[in-house]
C-alpha cells in the first residue's frame, strides 16, 4: 500500500500494523517515539492531515490517502534531502532543551498544529495544546516557553 509521509509517497508492506511501527521499523523514521502503546502519553504523535494523531492507535491502512507528517518532515530540505532550515518549532525547542526529550515528538507536533491555526497563541492556548502529552521529566514550563518562542520565531520568518 502507498502512504504519503512527509510529502513523499512510500510503499509499505504492513498495513495492519500500528503506524508507529511502520514509521519506525519499515521506513526508519525514528523521530516518532513509542511510549505507552495506548494513546495516553503522546510520544508517538504525528500530524495526520494537519491534526495531531497518536500513531500507536491507528494502523497504516487506516491512514488511507491522508498525508502524514513526522518530526523528520518539519525541516526544509534541499533536492538531495539535506536539511537547509529547521521549522521554527524545532529551532525553539533546540534553544530551550528538555531533560530527556522522549516526549518531544508529541509536544513539537502539537505545537506545529497549534501555530498553524493560531500564530499568536496565549499562555492558555499553549497549555491546552500541550496538555494531551506527558513529560515524565516535568518540563512543562520549559515546553510552554519553547512554544511561545516558536510563535515568535514564526512571526519573524
From TrEMBL:
SUPFAM superfamilies: 2Fe-2S ferredoxin-like, CO dehydrogenase ISP C-domain like. Coiled coil: none annotated. PROSITE patterns: 2FE2S_FER_2. The keyword Metal-binding applies. InterPro entries: 2Fe-2S-bd, 2Fe-2S-bd_dom_sf, 2Fe-2S_ferredoxin-like_sf, 2Fe-2S_ferredoxin-type, Beta-grasp_dom_sf, Diverse_Oxidoreductases. The keyword Metal-binding applies. This is (2Fe-2S)-binding protein. It comes from Catellatospora methionotrophica.
Amino acid at each position: 500500500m502507498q502512504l504519503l509521509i512527509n510529502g513523499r509517497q512510500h510503499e509499505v508492506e504492513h498495513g495492519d500494523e500500528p503506524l508507529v511501527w511502520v514509521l519506525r521499523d519499515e521506513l526508519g523514521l525514528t523521530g516518532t517515539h513509542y511510549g505507552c502503546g495506548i494513546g495516553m502519553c503522546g510520544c508517538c504523535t504525528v500530524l495526520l492531515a494537519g491534526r495531531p494523531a497518536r500513531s500507536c492507535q491507528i494502523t497504516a491502512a487506516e491512514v488511507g490517502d491522508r498525508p502524514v507528517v513526522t518530526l523528520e518532515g518539519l525541516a526544509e530540505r534541499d533536492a538531495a534531502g539535506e536539511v537547509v532550515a529547521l521549522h521554527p518549532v524545532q529551532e525553539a525547542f533546540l534553544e530551550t532543551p528538555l531533560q530527556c526529550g522522549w516526549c518531544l515528538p508529541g509536544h513539537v507536533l502539537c505545537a506545529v498544529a497549534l501555530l498553524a491555526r493560531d500564530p499568536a497563541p496565549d499562555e492558555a492556548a499553549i497549555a491546552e495544546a500541550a496538555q494531551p502529552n506527558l513529560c515524565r521529566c516535568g518540563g512543562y514550563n520549559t515546553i510552554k516557553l519553547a512554544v511561545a518562542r516558536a510563535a515568535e520565531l514564526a512571526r519573524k520568518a
